[in-house]
Amino acid sequence: MTDLYESPFVRVEEPASATAASPNGTSASYEDEDDAYEDEEQRTDHSGGSSSIGLPPITPGRGKPNADEVFLRNMLGLLNKRGYNVRESTNETSTASSSASLTCSSSFTSTGSSTVSSVLLALREPNHGQSPLHIAVRRCDMQVLDALLEHESRDELLDVPDSNGNTALHFATGHWRRPTSVNVTEKLLAAGGNVHAENKRGLTPLGVHMLTLKIDNPTLVAKLLEAGADPNTEAEGLAVLHLAARRGLPVVSAVLTAFGASMLSLNADGLMCYEVASPRVKQFMARSINRTPPAYVSMTQRCACMLCKSTTLVSHKKVLGNMVKRVLGMHMRTHPSNCYHCGMLFCSQCLKPSTAVSAIPFVRDDDATCGKIKTCRLCEAVLLDRKKKQAAQHVFDMHVRGIHPTMQMTR
């Protein structure tokens, strides 16, 4: 924990140069050059002078400074020492040439006209309008990050956008390659980071993460979804589940499906996520279907079997039977050509009565009885595997309780 109320940085050294190098000796960048959400950190002082932050002076004769004043002086001293190229900016249209020192105008007076929050919110990096929190996240500077998040002004700092509309959470999720990205994201979410915030490109933190994600690592995806992110959010006009399916990320696709991402969302070609996914991704998505049943695909959306592409979804015998039932006023199935488990549309040859109904984790609000529930081949294989695992778990639980299965049967 970083306590800036009692910090050695209260005695500030000479300001760092605006061209200070990053910790690795080179100019720091937002992320890789091929990342669409990276921007280079430029440390050139456009004003021609020092880019350091002037410290608010302690007014003589006031006695011992209050805690907020000490915190602010220590924080500004820490930012100077770390080479943060931030300056006071009163509005979004201010340029790098309009640098201003936080001197008397930013000092604390006896009337309390200025606050720590207003001073920290006014500090911006001149090239991209990034706040100290943005830079701390980008650099993975845990000391500055902890100090800012522990202060009472963190709620305002968390939602501050840079010139591109990115919040600190956008930066954290875009830096998934770094070892500390999960820790930084957890801290921002725990402090109340807004998972629904959109940048100027209409991207949420989840959208930014999915556009930059190259490997099948669902850690940050799960963290954002647990914090309330929308699993059906779009990135560049495409549902994030489409991105995962197209890139062949089965585990990420499974996590999104488990949190309610729709497999029916369409891409620019009018294809559903289920249709563009590889067999392995489809299997993972089917396994992750939980207590929320997927929506049924209607015959107006698709007119052919989604497996064998047959245009005869219902056999002639079934059509004749349905006509008789309709005349006699008998009950008819609402979705006779849909898989009960995944909701996709199949022909009578690809859709068979399920032998693992007990493994289905939900009950749909229709009139299907257990004996008539039909599933596709993929879902049936998934349900049978789940049924075997449930039986094995039951046997294990019985052994743990000291009850042998054969003894239970004799009772």
From TrEMBL:
Keyword Repeat belongs to the record: yes
Compositionally biased intervals (Acidic residues): 30-42
UniProt entry keywords in alphabetical sequence: ANK repeat, Repeat
ANK repeats mapped onto the chain: 128-160, 164-200
Xref: Pfam families: Ank_2 (PF12796)
Top-level taxon in the UniProt lineage: Eukaryota
InterPro entries: Ankyrin_rpt, Ankyrin_rpt-contain_sf, Multifunctional_regulatory
Compositionally biased tracts (Low complexity): 47-56
Region (Disordered): 1-67
PANTHER family per UniProt: ANKYRIN REPEAT AND SOCS BOX PROTEIN 2 (PTHR24189:SF50), MYOTROPHIN (PTHR24189)
Name of the molecule in the record: FYVE-type domain-containing protein
Organism annotation: Hyaloperonospora brassicae
